[in-house]
Design a protein that fits this description.
FAD/NAD(P)-binding domain; five-stranded parallel β-sheet
């Protein structure tokens, strides 16, 4: 028997979960809500990641919540500032009291007879908790918080220095005056290198292949001016839309005119580093812009560190670790006292849980996505997955509003179950995303599939999702409601 019943169970107290609880509290005050969080504190990514320089690569006018304007001085905020923003939001909206820490979801089983989920929760230092809920809202993000991705490196055990992964950064990791090698070329590496270079003897970013990098000021004077002139809330809304439309324009330019976008970005890098720098080797990727996420360089900090001689980039493959560093495929050896493996994330799918519907175990790689939030044949469950080409919160906010619309519609009509159903079992399916980043490609078989047309096609477009999730008809011929 389940110990307790709640109308909505939110899994995860990070950016998505806190936002969802705020929306539910405001739009569905008659529904009981509980949040379970596996860790001992809220914040998700922004509580977990503690490496030097950790920050967002999205601006806070879109990464922040629409209902709580961002008033900070910097649009590109660091990790501790974002975490404080989340804590303040939870406290101001009374969300903290709904969070149960040290509660990790292990199993979830749907019963159509009961029109309810029964979930098993593992609790630290206690026995398992079983509770029932009408609606399950998954806000756990998309990567495994237990461990990041690290390839197998030959000779790793021979290295006499320290090896660290950014996802598990310890405060006792010393890098003052040391030779540091950061393996990777993604957003984490681009963040780490200039931060470490402030105190290290030298930092080398060792990359197998380059990424596209785009410098941007960390402050947004126009946004601050809009808030002064139009007021905090209206100024925030205008800045949010300004940045949404700008990001959409850049994405469309990159996908529609990749050669022009490539030429522009490389020209901007060359302007930062000068005509004599080998931009062709170190800053010219093999793929087209926005086939992987662009790396943001706030205030050009990485380029400044390179110009000052405090950091450098080496593009080569690793042959093996040695006692004193890394031997490269090209034959050279990089000396190192500390090696940081900024080699990526591990994506986590529903396969990490035991999820079943009327006794049928679900395999996430066989699920068909509905509006990027629900799955065909799976009742009363929404899983939040943000955009790959824009701020995570934009989609998370829309997902929470969509859930509120569903709950209010169901209560008004007496329905207890909502489930997307496809009448076309032969519909061609496509991968969840065409993103070519390594962490997506490694997990592609475990990710849900999408169809080739609405509502089964996954949008990477905020305006399209706004029209569909906030204003589109709930009774669309695909979503089936029943008592």
């Amino acid at each position: 028997m389940a110990d307790e019943f709640v109308d909505v169970l939110i899994v995860g107290a990070g950016l998505s979960g806190i936002g969802a609880a705020c929306h539910l509290q405001r739009r569905c005050p008659g529904h009981s809500v509980a949040i379970i969080e596996a860790r001992q504190s809220l914040g998700g990514t922004w509580d977990l990641f503690r490496y030097p320089g950790v920050r967002s690569d999205s601006d806070m006018y879109t990464l922040g919540y629409a209902f709580r304007p961002w008033t900070g001085d910097k649009a590109i905020a660091d990790g501790p500032t974002i975490l404080q923003y989340l804590r303040d939001t939870a406290r101001e909206h009374g969300i903290e009291q709904r969070i149960r820490y040290g509660h990790r979801l292990r199993r979830a089983a749907w019963s159509s007879e009961d029109a309810a989920w029964t979930v098993e929760i593992e609790r630290e230092g206690q026995g398992p908790l079983h509770l029932r809920c009408s609606f399950l809202l998954m806000c756990v993000g998309y990567y495994d918080d237990a461990e990041g991705y690290t390839p197998e490196f030959a000779g790793r055990g021979d290295f006499k220095g320290r090896i660290a992964h950014p996802q598990h950064w310890d405060e006792d990791i010393a890098y003052d005056g040391k030779r540091v090698v950061v393996i990777g070329s993604g957003a984490t590496a681009v963040t780490l290198v200039p931060a470490l270079a402030e105190r290290a003897a030298h930092v080398t970013m060792l990359q197998r292949s380059p990424s596209y990098m785009l410098s941007r000021p960390s402050a947004d004077p126009l946004a601050r001016w809009l808030q002064r002139v139009a007021g905090t809330r209206a100024g925030h809304a205008m800045s949010r839309w300004k940045n949404v439309l700008l990001a959409m324009y850049v994405f469309r330019l990159c996908r529609g005119r990749p050669e022009a976008a490539r030429s522009m970005m490389i020209k901007l890098v060359r302007r930062q580093l000068g005509p004599d720098y080998d931009v062709a080797t170190h800053f010219t990727p093999r793929y087209n812009p926005w086939e992987q996420r662009l790396c943001l360089v706030p205030d050009g900090d990485l380029f400044k560190a390179i110009r000052a001689g405090r950091a450098s980039i080496v593009t080569d493959r690793i042959d093996r670790f040695t006692e004193t560093g890394l031997k490269l495929a090209g034959g050279t050896e990089l000396p190192a006292d500390l090696v940081v493996t900024a080699t990526g994330l591990k994506l986590k799918s529903l396969d990490a849980l035991e999820v079943s519907v009327d006794g049928r175990r679900l395999a996430s790689g066989q699920l068909l996505s509905y509006k990027g939030l629900m799955f065909a044949g799976v009742p009363n469950l929404v899983s939040v997955f943000g955009y790959t080409n824009a701020s995570w919160t934009l989609k998370a906010d829309l997902a929470a509003i969509f859930v509120c619309r569903l709950l209010r519609h169901m209560r008004r009509t007496g329905a207890r179950q909502c489930v997307p159903q496809t009448d076309d079992p032969s519909m061609p399916l496509a991968p969840w995303t065409d993103f070519s980043s390594g962490y997506f490609e490694r997990a592609l078989d475990t990710l849900p599939k999408q169809g080739l047309h609405k509502p089964w096609k996954l949008n990477q477009n905020y305006v399209a999702d706004l029209l569909s999730l906030r204003f589109g008809a709930l009774e669309d011929g695909v979503m089936r409601f029943s008592a």
